[in-house]
Amino acid sequence: MGLLRVGVIGLGMMGRHHTRVVRELDGVELVAVADAYGDPHGAAGNLPLCRSADELIEHGIDMAVCAVPTGLHEEVGLALARAGVHTMVEKPIAATLEGGEKLAEAFESAGLVGAVGHIERFNPALQSVRARVGNGDLGDVYQITTRRQGPFPARVADVGVVKDLGTHDIDLTAWLAQSHYISVSAQTSTRSGRAHEDMVTASCQLSNGVITSHLVNWLSPMKERLTVVTGEKGAFVADTLTADLTFYENGTIDTEWEAISNFRGVSEGNVTRFAMTKREPLKVEHEAFRDAVLGKRNDAVSMREGLNTLRVAEAMIESASVGQVQILSR
């Protein structure tokens, strides 16, 4: 089989990185790129620079990466589906549930691979957590907590922090726990004068009983990406900015100091920081998408999974709006 012909549409902050990674990927050939507003980061190089999805499709592509603004995911994705092009859409899958449903149905009915770029699943620290949890290293999982905060990214204008950043945490949490959300309680605020929320805190529950909390904002002067998985035997702490993973083990040595023992509940055990191979998550994500197209593996994030994540995000926004817990289907 020859090289898979790939096109990238959307050459903004994420699009330029997708373009770079596709160029480095074995088994594929980047044949053209597209952006209605040109090429602000010089990602195209000597490749044809198209102005629309239709023009990109004319280059005979087998696969595409859709990195246009969220509000355009539905339009561009449907055009690629009609043309028979396997497509990975940047997260979130779409701006609305209706749009996400249309995309999922279009790719499924055409027998095409439709994927969503939830890149955190491919972070080496989180992949290690999932494997270790699956092996029983933590025992029963009790809670998953995430913190994702930092300054406002100028690239985002059409959605708020829940759909842009919060969807990372929704997806990775359900994936780590191998369960889905059944209840959502959230509060949001808009402090920066923009049209959408820029801060959210949410408390949720998954169908397997795991409780979760998520703190996400665009208002912090420091950048933080932290996931804590607490369970029967201790806690894993993953820093996805550095791909560092630390395990805080519950202690097995009884303390003779009764006051401290009663106060702490769980004693402190060994602390282990794991060494691991740290590959770029975006490249691993592209490998999963390529291999899904080739029928070799199925760990790319499906559009149905992306749609479920968007459904939880919408529930967070609705919960904050009406001041009530939102119950999702079990």
TrEMBL record:
All copies of the Gfo/Idh/MocA-like oxidoreductase N-terminal domain together span 4-118
Which spans are transmembrane here?
Answer: none
Q: Where is the Gfo/Idh/MocA-like oxidoreductase C-terminal domain?
A: 131-324
Question: What top-level branch of life does the organism fall under?
Answer: Bacteria
Q: Which GO terms describe its molecular function?
A: nucleotide binding
- InterPro entries, per the entry: Gfo/Idh/MocA-like_OxRdtase_C (IPR004104), Gfo/Idh/MocA-like_OxRdtase_N (IPR000683), Gfo/Idh/MocA_Oxidoreductases (IPR051450), NAD(P)-bd_dom_sf (IPR036291)
Similarity remark: Belongs to the Gfo/Idh/MocA family.
This one is known as: Gfo/Idh/MocA family oxidoreductase
